[in-house]
Each structure stands twice: as C-alpha cells, then as structure tokens.
C-alpha cells in the first residue's frame, strides 16, 4: 500500500485572504502596506473609490478630513452613501461604510476644513505615508503642496468632473528598491565568472541532464578562446556561438536547445547601468549623514562594494531562471550562485553596519534581510525626484513649451488638463463650479480664464470650444463609474508609493471616459 502524499503547509488566514496581491508585492510588501497610514481630504465619490482600492488590500489605516455634511447630491453620485446619510458628517459616514469592507483596517475622521488643520496643526500630516486630496480649491492645493513638500510626504491631487478626470502626483524624492522592470536582465556573470563558478563548471561534464547554463558556459569559453579573449556582443557573433552549440548536439537535447535560445538574453549582467551609476554618484549617496535614510546608507555601502571587492561589478543576485535538468545538477549550480550572493551581501551588510556606527544610528535601521533584498535588486534600483505642484501656478512655468507642443498633437488629452485647471481658477474667482447655474454663460468665462492662463505661459493655442462647453455642461458633478475607474488607478499608485515597489506615474494622469482614453504627462 502506497503512503499518502505529503500535505502542503496550511496557508494562514491572512495569506489566503490576500493571496493574489502577495504574489505581486510579496509578504514583505504586504507587511509594509498593513503598517501604512493614508489621509484623504474630501470624501467625494472619487475619494471613497480611492480608499476602497486600498482598504480591500489591507492598508493599515486611513483618516478622512472633510468638513461637509452629506447632501442629496452626494447620494446621487456616490454609491457608498444613501438617503439615511443626508445631514450626517460626510467624513464620519464614509469612514464607517468603508470600514465595513475590511474589518482589519482602522478608520478615523476629522470633521474640519483642511485649511484649519494647515493653520492650526501643520504637523498633523507627518503621521501619514501619503496624502490624497480630491476636489480641493486652487488656494488649498497651493498651501497643501507647500506644506507636504517641506515635510517630504507624497501628495496626490485629483478631481473627477463628468467624463473627465485628472490626478497629479507630487514627490520630492522617492527611492525604490523593487522596480519590477518588464524586461529584467538575468545576471549570470558569463563574462565575469567568479572563482566558485569557474571551479563548478570545470568539474561538471556536459550531458543531457545538466542545466543549459553549463552548456552555454562551456561553449562560450571555447568561442572566446578562438576570438582573442573577446566575448560575443554583436548579432553576428552571437549567431556564431549559437551555431557552435548546435554543431555539438547529438540528436534532440533539450538543454542544448535552451542554451541556443538563451544566447541573446544571457550576457551583460553585473555592470551597473547608467541609471544605477547616477544613483551611486549622487551627492546623497556619497555624503551620507545623520539625516540619511536606509536606502541611501545601503546605496553608499553598495558603492563601496562596487569600487572595492566588486571590482566594478554589482553583487551577484543569486537568482537563476528555470532550466531543464536533473534535480541534483540544478541545485548544485543554484547553490554556487546563492553562496556567492550571500557572500557579497554579507560584505555590503558589514559596510552598512559600519556606516550606521559612524553616523550614530541604531543597528536595527538596516537588517541583513534588507541588505540581501537590496543586493538582489541592485541592478534595478531607482530614485524618482518630482516637481512641486505650486510650480505649475507660476506665470513663467518652465514646462509651458512642453504643454504647447502636446496641445498641437491630434487627439492628445492636454486640453483636458487645461480645462480642469481652468475649472479650478473659475471656482477661485467666482466661488462656484462652472455650469452650476448657467452652462452657456459660464462657457465664455471658462474660455476667457483658459486663454489668460495659456497667455501667461506664452502659449497661443486656444482652448477647444467643445471642451469648455462640455466641462460646463457637467456643472461640477461626478459620475460614479468614471470616479470608480480613476479611483482604482490612483489606488494602484498609492500602493506603489507605500510599498516602494514598481514605478509610480510621473506625474500627471488624465482620463477621458467618453473615449476610454488615458495619457500621462510629466509636468
């Protein structure tokens, strides 16, 4: 009688609940998410949809700042609210309903105007990882932008009107370890084999059971010997290597076929890219100080490794792709790479610990686990530095030439950005949203405001009559389905910011629901 198959380990309730998303950002990313705090200013339909998109994945907590009571108009455009909510504080009611989506998430509310907080408690926002503001006035945008820029807290300002929506991300500096590039380079060190790898390859004979990497390495060395020590770089040279491998095949050998396919993608690993070199040469990396965060201290330790023990190369990441081979051959090769990765990471960790000591920072600021992850992802680390939202309100705005060129592009959504900016100015000038009283007359006012704004930037292209009329026709109203889509997009970006994984949009996202079109501009 055969013995029963071993049972797979039981998943925890949390792992089962968040299984799909953990596959995207890992257990460590989920832990960061569960410790994060988000502040939402104004519980509009867009605002509640943004929070829905982070409450369901298990954000640590959220706070809604909103001084308005629920109105019948809110009920008409926000699926979260019902007629029984009318007259209640909007912040409190939306907080209660959003918490029902996930009991693990903590909710709070502040029944105050955000400007009261800016005036009386400017440090209120320091407890949050990201602040999101929806449908706030031009004056509040500028004040909030200045406060959060100084506090180095990411800010997303968003608005949804009719079929149109816009989101603007303000980042002073955002450091990313796990960027998850679409075409990630596999670092196998074929051009720069380390001693342990050379020894392993020398002791391994080519059979149909060894990984394709062994096959490729062996024939690569043969090719290099006949080409004055050079490694293949051009398409022609790589084709020669492929033909060499093919000529040595004895019938159908899967590992040989895999080696031939891998020729194009297996070279070039180890050396820092231009983007990584810029980080290692950055003043924040070279001159770490008591204000430096863990990223920059690890970056400095990495730089010292590259300049010394690494001989110009990054630490070995120790990650191998799948290969057809018998178990012992694959594990043996994998162990060689993993041991080298652990050795390199240990050197970087010791350097990071020494820096912490010199800077009089606590040892637990950087763990060996942090450094292992940093070394594994070193080839793709990134630093994003953004622009201040208030810069866009300057008459001599430096991106105006870019706006002008995009405005002339057929079917671009830059006109939507202009009309939504004009809407903010209209509200500031007249105390109401365009179209709330009379769409026809307000259209003229919107066109005049847009023309003045474009003129201040030195742009002669006028705002489309259709866009001006359309935005007035909405009367400032939200369509929940449009807000739901835009809110989902913004929630994704919030998760990127909080987990410090994946690159966030840079920096203005525009959506036209009538054409199902989106565009991103750097403003």
Automatic annotation (TrEMBL):
<comment type="pathway">
    <text>Protein modification; protein neddylation.</text>
</comment>
<dbReference type="Pfam" id="PF00899">
    <property type="entry name" value="ThiF"/>
</dbReference>
<dbReference type="InterPro" id="IPR030667">
    <property type="entry name" value="APP-BP1"/>
</dbReference>
<dbReference type="InterPro" id="IPR045886">
    <property type="entry name" value="ThiF/MoeB/HesA"/>
</dbReference>
<feature type="domain" description="THIF-type NAD/FAD binding fold">
    <location>
        <begin position="18"/>
        <end position="520"/>
    </location>
</feature>
<dbReference type="GO" id="GO:0019781">
    <property type="term" value="F:NEDD8 activating enzyme activity"/>
</dbReference>
<comment type="similarity">
    <text>Belongs to the ubiquitin-activating E1 family. ULA1 subfamily.</text>
</comment>
<dbReference type="GO" id="GO:0005737">
    <property type="term" value="C:cytoplasm"/>
</dbReference>
<protein>
    <recommendedName>
        <fullName>NEDD8-activating enzyme E1 regulatory subunit</fullName>
    </recommendedName>
</protein>
<dbReference type="InterPro" id="IPR000594">
    <property type="entry name" value="ThiF_NAD_FAD-bd"/>
</dbReference>
<dbReference type="GO" id="GO:0045116">
    <property type="term" value="P:protein neddylation"/>
</dbReference>
<dbReference type="InterPro" id="IPR035985">
    <property type="entry name" value="Ubiquitin-activating_enz"/>
</dbReference>
<keyword id="KW-0833">Ubl conjugation pathway</keyword>
């Amino acid at each position: 009688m055969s013995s029963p198959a071993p049972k797979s380990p039981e998943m925890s309730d949390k792992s089962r609940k968040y299984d799909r998303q953990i596959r995207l950002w890992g257990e460590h990313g989920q832990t960061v998410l569960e410790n994060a705090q988000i502040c939402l200013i104004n519980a509009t339909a867009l605002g509640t949809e943004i929070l829905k998109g982070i409450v369901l994945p298990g954000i640590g907590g959220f706070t809604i700042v909103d001084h308005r009571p629920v109105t019948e108009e809110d009920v008409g455009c926000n699926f979260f609210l019902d007629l029984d909510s009318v007259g209640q504080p909007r912040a409190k009611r939306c907080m209660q309903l959003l918490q029902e989506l996930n009991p693990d998430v903590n909710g709070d509310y502040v029944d105050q105007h955000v400007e009261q907080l800016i005036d009386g408690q400017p440090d209120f926002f320091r407890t949050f990882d990201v602040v999101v503001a929806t449908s706030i006035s031009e004056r509040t945008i500028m004040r909030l932008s200045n406060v959060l820029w100084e506090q180095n807290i990411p800010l997303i300002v968003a608005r949804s009107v009719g079929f149109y929506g816009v989101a603007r991300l303000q980042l002073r500096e955002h450091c990313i370890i796990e960027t998850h590039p679409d075409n990630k380079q596999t670092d196998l060190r074929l051009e720069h084999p380390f001693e342990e790898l050379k020894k392993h390859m020398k002791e391994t004979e080519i059979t149909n059971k060894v990984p394709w990497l062994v096959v490729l390495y062996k024939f690569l060395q043969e090719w290099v010997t006949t080409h004055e020590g050079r490694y293949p770089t051009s398409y022609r040279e790589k084709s020669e290597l492929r033909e060499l491998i093919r000529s040595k095949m004895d019938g159908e050998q899967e590992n040989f076929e895999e080696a031939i396919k891998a020729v194009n993608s297996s070279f070039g690993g180890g050396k820092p890219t231009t983007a990584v070199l810029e980080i290692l040469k950055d003043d924040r990396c070279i001159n770490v100080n008591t204000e430096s965060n863990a990223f920059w201290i690890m970056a400095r330790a990495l730089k010292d490794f590259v300049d010394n023990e690494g001989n110009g190369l990054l630490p070995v990441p120790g990650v191998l792709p799948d290969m057809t081979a018998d178990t012992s051959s694959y594990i043996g090769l994998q162990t060689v790479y993993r041991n080298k990765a652990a050795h390199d990471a240990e050197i970087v960790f010791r350097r990071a610990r020494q820096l912490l000591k010199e800077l009089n920072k606590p040892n637990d600021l950087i763990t060996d686990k942090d450094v292992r992850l940093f070394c594994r992802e070193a080839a793709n680390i990134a630093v994003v530095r953004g622009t201040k939202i208030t810069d866009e309100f300057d008459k001599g705005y430096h991106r105006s030439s870019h706006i002008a060129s995009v405005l002339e592009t057929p079917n671009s959504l830059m006109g939507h950005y202009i009309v939504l900016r004009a809407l903010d100015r209209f509200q500031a000038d007249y105390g109401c949203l365009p179209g709330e009283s009379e769409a026809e007359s307000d259209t003229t006012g919107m066109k005049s405001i847009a023309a003045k704004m474009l003129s201040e930037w030195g742009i002669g292209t006028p705002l489309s009559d259709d866009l001006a009329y359309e935005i007035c026709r909405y009367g400032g109203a939200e369509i929940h389905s449009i807000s739901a889509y835009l809110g989902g997009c913004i929630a994704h970006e919030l998760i990127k910011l909080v987990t410090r994984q994946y690159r966030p949009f840079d920096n203005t996202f525009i959506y036209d629901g009538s054409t199902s079109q989106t565009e991103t501009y750097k403003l």
